[in-house]
Amino acid sequence: MQVRRCAVLYMEPREEVSFDLAVLLAGGDGLRRERRWLALAPHVGDEVEVDEVEREFLGALSPSQWVEAATLTGHPAQTIDRLLKEGLLIADGKRHSAMRARDEALRGTYWHPLAATLHAFTRWSEVDAVQNMKDSGTETAAQMREVLGPPPVEAAACSEGAGHLPLPRIAPNDFDHLLARRVTCRNFDASRKLPLELFAQLLQRVFAAQAEVRVSDDTVFLKKNVPSGGGLHPMECYLIVQHVEGVAPGLYHYQAQQHALEPLALPDKPLREFMMDMVAQQHWFADAHVMVLLSPRFDRTFWKYRHHAKGYRVVALEAGHLSQTLYLAATEAGLGAFITGAINEVELERAFGLDHVHQGALAICGFGWRGEVMETAELDPAGVVWAPG
Ligand SMILES: Cc1cc2nc3c(=O)[nH]c(=O)nc-3n(C[C@H](O)[C@H](O)[C@H](O)COP(=O)(O)O)c2cc1C
Fold first, then answer.
1. How many helices and strands (H and E) does the chain possess?
2. Does the beta carbon of 184 sit less than 6 angstroms from any atom of ligand 1?
3. Class of the 112-135+182-389 domain?
4. Each residue of 325-360: pLDDT tens digit?
5. 380 Cα nearest atom in ligand 1
């Protein structure tokens, strides 16, 4: 059997601090501090605790050169077996093909190693963001100030004012009025169906291919209404449709060239419950008529930006462009829109059949009719959307 180390592996010396009465009674500060080594390998996706022997062994192995396992004398067979099982060590042969395939997929996607690690280990599973805010006492702005202290100043200044160049204030036009009406919507009216034409118009404006450049049969670049790093448009759009006329509630993939919906398998629970889980229990988004998972195909962007230090950032920035375009298109149509980064990626990947090595879940946007009553707070200090009081 030949072995090599997996392609990307970071070791974290993690310290966990917990209260311990025994430490307090012994005259200490009451805190027990425990350190352990965690192996972070993005193709695995879960942290693996390792001991010193395993850590040193992995550090001594090449990720690019295969060696005969039999020549690794001085290393107990159980160390090799365990690291193979965890996927930190890769071997040839059928028995180890699953982890080898994952490692090869990561190599073949041309991730920057730090970006791959950031992406893999910042995914949430079964997180309840609302409960977390309750537990930390940071549900309202006033509570945040109380618990966290004052934030950094709201707008930075480099000097005291002397020498400033005041700029003219330009009279607002229709575009300014549209921008002013863009307010993150946290109150949807589930009782009112969204007409198919509005739904289709928004998807067409925000996510559809508007034209294409065909370099050869296998190399095509799309033109869309948003900018994209390298013009590669890696972002796929997966939909959770709840209340749209003529569209059965369920999961869909939006095909950007055909401007068509591809129906996907239904989740294994009621749709609203599924939506709640996906947005980490943020109930104020759960009645949205449509949710849009922004899901980049990393391999498309990293095809050009191989192991590139900015590749992941470029992809993440694109989510913002799509989101703002969706906000404005929705606002223009008289609808409300939102974006949330508080999502349970692991469950989203499972539901939509995605693998975080090739394709991620970056954010969820949504849109639909606003409700009549503001039950959850929205930021509308000028009273542009909601009448003051
Ligand atoms: C990347 C990103 C993530 C966000 N995530 C959340 C979220 O998890 N929950 C939420 O209620 N709002 C979320 N928002 C909306 C912001 O809270 C909102 O934009 C901000 O309060 C300003 O309000 P406005 O959009 O109405 O101007 C997010 C906004 C951005 C840009």
1. 13, 14
2. yes
3. alpha beta
4. 999 999 999 999 999 999 999 999 999 999 999 999
5. 26
